Amino acid sequence: MNTNIEKKQIINEAKDYIFITLGLLLYTVGWTFFLLPYEIVTGGVTGISAIIFYATNGGGHGIPIMYTYFIINALLLILALKVLGWKFLVKTVYAIFALSLMLGVAQDVITQTDGTMIKLLGDQDFMSLIIGCCMTGSSLAIVFLNNGSTGGTDIVAAVVNKYRNMSLGTVLILVDIVIIGSSFPMFILARDFNVIDAASKTVFGICTMVIENFMLDYVMNSRRESVQFFIFSQKYQEIANAIGTEMNHGVTILDGHGWYTGRDMKVLCILARKRESVSIFRLIKAIDPNAFVSQSSVIGVYGEGFDEMKVRVKKKKTNENSIRNQQLT
Predict the structure, then answer these.
(1) What is the largest CA-CA distance in the chain?
(2) 108 Cβ partners below 8 Å, 6+ apart?
(3) Cα(146)–Cα(154) distance, rounded to whole angstroms?
(4) Cα–Cα distance between 45 and 24 in angstroms, integer?
(5) Which of 55, 124, 176, 271 is the most exposed place for a label (fewest CB within 10 A)?
(6) CB-side exposure of 130: number of CA atoms within 13 Å?
């Protein structure tokens, strides 16, 4: 039994690293090929690294992003050691090293001999922004869903998400606004942009923040989205057994009474992930094609097998309640 559990843990860990790597590759392509050549600023540590690169790239030889990205993340990791678990940090360290290397290689590929970078979409700045942010936002979600992080402000988001039931995109917005806003004086002072051009670059940066965070939340929520089933069938026992054994899923049996027929019957109540819906429908149809099934989306499901309730109970209220209970008893 222990051997089987260990094998499953190893397989799950391997899957996490595979998907984290794929997410990092997608992020590298989206950021380096679609955002960097157009001098588009994003949030996070990559945004800070990009600002430093743009500021020092007057002669076509700025400080490579991979170095700045690695140094800032190393400092953040040291600060995060006391808060995040070692398992999370190991994957984060892997992601930082891997992404630093990928960004360095991709930047060399996109940079020409004269120091300029290839613009894949020509003068289509905004289209490149949309494509790049869709890729980077989706990639961040893939990394987070597989218990990883790309480091930087993602570490801050992961710390908050560990203790609070807050959207990851919302956590990152304030930090990103500060980073993107700092690009405005940089473009004027270091790159000699006029006010209008610098302002347009800043607006583009805000657009990247909105699109990237939207994609991050969309992919995260679509993966976590849950549904609720109410199943009315004379073969409720067979359906419950099939769902419990074949899908290893919990089922609640409720007592129902039909108004029109006047008969008592059992109703199955099931809470499941949305991705499990097709499998549940197949089981129901195979057992009772005439079953009446109601499916509805739920905002959140918390507890065993689902999401954790990430809220803190106020100690003062807890102590007051315990005192009241003692007085009543």
Answers:
(1) 84
(2) none
(3) 14
(4) 14
(5) 124
(6) 4
36, two tokens = 């960097």
Q: Which residues contact 278 (CB under 8 A, 6 or more apart)?
A: none
Other residues' Cβ atoms within 10 Å of the Cβ of residue 82: 6
- Is-contact 159 69, C-beta < 8 A? no
Measured between alpha carbons, how far is 53 from 59 in angstroms, rounded to an integer?
A: 11
Query: Whole-angstrom Cα distance, residue 216 to residue 171?
Result: 12
Phi and psi torsions of 42, nearest 5°: -115, 180
Contact 200, 126 (CB under 8 A): no
Residue with tokens 């800032």: 72
Token readout for 152 is 């930087």
Please list the pLDDT of the chain residue by residue as tens digits (329 residues).
467 767 878 888 888 899 999 999 999 999 999 999 998 888 888 889 989 988 887 555 678 888 898 898 888 787 667 666 666 678 888 888 999 999 999 999 998 888 788 999 988 999 999 999 999 999 988 998 887 777 777 666 666 666 666 666 566 677 788 889 988 998 888 888 889 988 998 999 999 988 988 898 888 877 777 889 999 999 999 999 999 888 888 898 999 988 888 888 899 999 888 888 888 999 999 999 999 999 988 766 676 666 666 555 565 555 555 555 555 55
